[in-house]
Design brief:
It is built from 23 helices and 18 strands. The protein has 680 residues and is an alpha+beta fold. Strands 1-2-3-5-4 form a five-stranded mixed beta barrel. A five-stranded antiparallel β-sheet has the order 11-10-9-17-18. Strand 2 (102-112) and strand 3 (121-126) form a beta hairpin. The two termini are 48 Å apart.
């Protein structure tokens, strides 16, 4: 029964994030009292009603933890774009990005002109600097700061919320070179430690890339230090289309290979000395040393939130070994999830958390079910049969993990790789037995300058992995576009999966009903007929062919790509932007488009007062880009001005029996701290 506690806590955290307003802190007090009362009663009474009440207490605890976490994290965020500022700050971290740019995470010291309320931390994208930068450097950069990014369409992933919980209060963009300066104040103790770790991490990345080819080097750095910004777009796309992209982010697989690989290697070394292995608990020693090695790997990898979660899972498993418990069972997984939700309840909303725990839970459940029914061999199997079993186990593992994570991939990424099982069956042994062992050995030998041979072996493994990725991605129908999934569908699938994984009796199969209903719900999702970007840079309209057609072939590319993905449209963005049939007909004054080809459902985009006056009477939707403070057009069912977009954000509309139903990002987000409730 206790295995359900993390899931119920997660449900409480999810309930908190679903609110459109920020709740008061009294639920925290209520939850603490409820937990205390329940613990007292549970020690004296053994009743079904008390077990059910315990589930309610767990939900309240998750809700309260999320509320308390937000209250402790809350910081200043910008609510409007600034003019160009001279920013002085300390580099917390830097990450290479595409098109030769670099993202700097800065702790702000001052801005000129000064802001009335200055965020403590910002992320600025730069294209060059006067000299090489490292973490801990103090810099001056001229940049324009903007509020945290909002979802590009109602229901899409909220990047602003993720940045907000990372302590970021604004994002910026600079074209001017960054200038390094003398520190205006002494570094604090924690800043010195963080700066040392980041500089060491950068130095290791440079050593890795110097020892490998320009193609394999960035991927080697991604495996060992978590820096992914220099991987080519072609390789990224191939890894994604072959369902191997998870290998490029340091997660549970990498942490497990590093931690348990070190554990196994150390046990092997101890086994070479019988006098030691027979007299001392070397298994526990190896687990303790592996725990320290896993912590070092965490720090080297940048200690991102997903990597922290992976470390917690591995650490709990290694601690279980130290205390003579099984290292991989549902109880260890539940403890890991509980620890993560207590520390960072917002992780429940993160795709990496959901997918990693879903995969591990499904694998444990299937292996426990299989081991309970497996008939032992009468005779030891031969080498051929053992190899067949090993390949079959790898295929089964990839299939189960892929099946468990598929709903989450569909919900968050609107994409499913059809041949992911095949790619993972081929590549996982390469990663497990070549890439990661060679990489870890290279790290251990790097202080002695002997990393060349291990990294050369690692490079060969990476080349083989990329060859498989490009090969599988080239197969016909390698990826399928998946339309928008409602949150209710994912919740039902997740609840059904958890029910089936945790129960061992026959009624575990009732979870299949929830999964079936959840899988069916996306079939009844009403897709938007018109989408307007928050900055009016682009507009999409559904044509007579049922596809979205874009207003601008050049602007708003990022937004448009997400619109197409969420619509289940598998066209390339360039192809979709070139498609001028069935969409808008434009001239210098404005554009007109018909929703699904219906001449009575006209969407007009006015760039001039003349077009506004001319199209007002016949339009169902008028998008007024004339920069007027208020529109004089009153005929359409909906008039969208830039002032409305500034208040409401991106908008999505659909036509239902002649009536227009519309929703906005602002109404969906509500009045939450990450939505810009803190003033400038």
């Amino acid at each position: 029964r206790g295995l359900f506690v993390p899931a119920l806590m997660g449900a409480g955290a999810g309930l908190y994030f679903a609110l459109s307003f920020e709740p008061a802190l009294w639920p925290v007090v209520f939850a603490m009292l409820s937990i205390a009362i329940w613990f007292v009663l549970s020690r004296r009474i053994d009743a079904v009603w008390l077990t059910i009440a315990g589930g309610g207490v767990a939900v309240c605890a998750g809700f309260a933890l999320a509320t308390l976490r937000t209250a402790t994290v809350e910081h200043v965020t910008l609510i409007s774009e600034t003019r160009t500022l001279q920013i002085t700050g300390r580099v917390v971290s830097l990450e290479p990005a595409n098109r030769g740019r670099t993202r700097l995470l800065l702790d702000l010291f001052e801005t000129r002109p000064s802001l009335r309320r200055m965020p403590s931390r910002v992320r600025v994208s730069i294209n060059r600097s006067e000299s090489a930068l490292t973490a801990g450097d103090w810099v001056v950069v001229r940049a324009t700061l903007r509020p945290l990014p909002a979802p590009v369409v109602p229901g899409s992933f909220d990047f602003g919320r993720k940045l907000w919980f990372d302590g970021v209060g604004a994002v910026g963009f600079s074209l001017a070179p960054v200038r390094r300066i003398e520190a205006p104040r002494e570094a604090r103790a924690m800043e010195s430690v963080q700066g040392t770790i980041e500089r060491f991490r950068r130095a290791v990345s440079e050593r890795i890339m110097a020892a490998m080819s320009p193609r394999a080097g960035p991927i080697g750095a991604a495996f060992l230090t978590g820096e992914r910004g220099l991987i080519s777009d072609e390789d990224n796309e191939a890894m994604r289309d072959s369902s191997l992209a998870h290998l490029l982010s340091i997660s549970g697989l990498h942490m497990a290979l590093a931690g348990f690989g070190f554990f196994a290697a150390l046990r092997f070394v101890f086994a070479l000395v019988p006098a030691v292995v027979l007299r001392f608990p070397v298994k526990k020693w190896a687990a303790g040393a592996a725990l320290i090695a896993s912590l070092a790997y965490l720090l080297l990898s940048g200690a991102s939130v997903p990597t922290q979660r992976s470390f917690v899972m591995v650490a709990v498993a290694l601690i279980a070994i130290i205390f003579d418990r099984s290292a991989l069972n549902m109880r260890v997984l539940a403890i890991s999830a509980f620890a993560i939700l207590v520390l960072t309840p917002e992780a429940w909303m993160d795709p990496s958390f959901q997918m990693s725990f879903a995969a591990v839970m499904a694998l444990i459940a299937v292996y426990e079910w299989w081991n309970a029914r497996r008939v032992p061999d009468a005779e030891p199997p031969g080498p051929v049969w053992r190899a067949v079993r090993l390949i079959g186990a790898a295929a089964a593992t990839s299939f189960v993990a892929g099946l468990a994570t598929a709903p989450f991939a569909a919900f968050h990424f609107n994409r499913f790789a059809d041949y992911g099982v095949a790619a993972n069956v081929i590549v996982t042994p390469i990663v497990s037995f070549v890439i990661m062992p060679a990489g870890v050995l290279g790290l251990l030998l790097m202080p002695f300058g002997l990393e060349g041979l291990p990294l050369a072996i690692m490079e060969k493994g990476i080349d083989a992995m990329l060859a498989v990725a490009h090969w599988v991605a080239s197969w016909p129908g390698s990826t399928q576009a998946v339309g928008t999934w409602p949150i209710k569908a994912l919740a039902l699938v997740a609840a059904g999966g958890i029910w089936m994984a945790l129960w061992r009796s026959a009624w575990r199969w009732f979870g299949a009903g929830a999964i079936a209903v959840g899988m069916a719900l996306p079939l009844f999702v009403a897709t938007p007929d018109v989408i307007v970007a928050a900055d009016a840079a682009n507009v999409a309209i559904r044509g007579a062919d049922g596809r979205l057609h874009l207003l601008s072939p050049r602007r708003g590319r990022f937004d448009a790509e997400i619109w197409l993905r969420r619509d289940g449209d598998d066209r390339d963005l360039t192809e979709a932007m070139k498609d001028a049939t069935g969409g808008f007909a434009c001239d210098a004054a404005g554009c007109l488009g018909a929703i699904r080809g219906d001449e009575h459902a006209i969407v007009a985009v006015a760039r001039s007062v003349e077009a506004l006056s001319e199209d007002c009477a016949s339009a169902l939707v008028m998008i007024d880009l004339t920069r007027g403070s208020a529109s004089t057009c009153v005929g359409p069912q909906l008039v969208v001005t830039q002032k409305v977009l500034a208040q409401e954000g991106a908008m999505a509309m659909r036509l239902s029996e002649g009536s227009l139903i519309w929703e906005t990002v602002a109404r969906e987000r509500g009045d939450r701290p990450w939505a810009g409730s803190a003033g400038q």
